[in-house]
Amino acid sequence: MNAPVTYEELAALMKGRAGVSVDPKEMATRPEATFEEFELDSLGLLGIVAELEKRYERPIGEEAETCKTPRAFLENVNAQLTAGV
Asked: Pfam families annotated for this entry (predicted)?
């Protein structure tokens, strides 16, 4: 079973794939803040999805690409990664 993707991993992916530095604690304490507030655009989010698909060797799906908040994104991705395991 895949371990869930955490705010820490998401922050690292945001920095590595989109060049956006975000404190994972801030994301966790502001779960309804949007990616836009963290200065992550849709292309950056696509890069993060692509990296997760490569890392876990399975498709993540288009729904994750349309998530507006880190919490919604993590819930969606983790649900997909644990489905059918």
From this structure: PP-binding (PF00550)
